[in-house]
Amino acid sequence: MSSPTYTIAAPPAPRQPPPACARAAQPAPPVDSATEVATAPPASFGNALTRLYAGLVLLR
After folding, report:
1. Residue 57: enclosing H or E segment and its boundaries?
2. Which of 8, 37, 39, 40 has the fewest CB atoms in 10 Å of its CB?
3. Three-state DSSP string of 2-56
4. Residue 44: which of 52, 36, 55 has the closest Cα?
5. Dist. CA 55–CA 6, nearest whole Å
């Protein structure tokens, strides 16, 4: 009587980490309002004109 033959399967491939877009987003650190104001870009005349124009367009 012949002995049965067995096929040995290859081991499963190691798990790959999920892509960056699928990972959970890291929570943003809390923003201190004083720091936010201190790091804001300085106001300029062009910036003021742009805001004024945008306000006038919205009021139209």
Report:
1. helix 45-59
2. 8
3. CCCCCCCCCCCCCCCCCCHHHCCCCCCCCCCHHHHHHCCCCCCHHHHHHHHHHHH
4. 52
5. 79
